């Protein structure tokens, strides 16, 4: 990433939905899967993505464009998509939830995640948000370490039982 121009911005273009979905599918490791991915059908089990993952993420991206409580932002390095974040805003209770934060496999470890978190925090503060939540797959240790370095603290343990 050295020498490149990083641009982070809200995605307001419904035509980007397929590019966002492709980026997600290409960069989503099975350790990324948390209860949210299972609850909403992106994954069929821990460690196993749904067969229609691309279609689901593309649909979510298209819907978020018109929803004031949901938003996707993208990071580009010299024009190339290298990161995305999906956020849910609750203006009534002044919190936001990072539903997804993904950095391309080739850009991980170069500081883009921190830049994204800092940008998200700035956007949240401008909106009057006081708390920022996220969830992370149980096996995603590298992400957990990153989030803890960035000041996130564990507030719950989510458990599941197959029926």
TrEMBL record:
Keywords per UniProt: Acyltransferase, Transferase
A Pfam family assignment: Acetyltransf_1
Domain N-acetyltransferase intervals: 33-163
SUPFAM superfamilies noted in UniProt: Acyl-CoA N-acyltransferases (Nat)
Residue ranges of coiled coil: none
GO MF terms held by the record: acyltransferase activity, transferring groups other than amino-acyl groups
Protein name stated in the entry: GNAT family N-acetyltransferase
Source species taxonomy: Bacteria, Pseudomonadati, Pseudomonadota, Alphaproteobacteria, Hyphomicrobiales
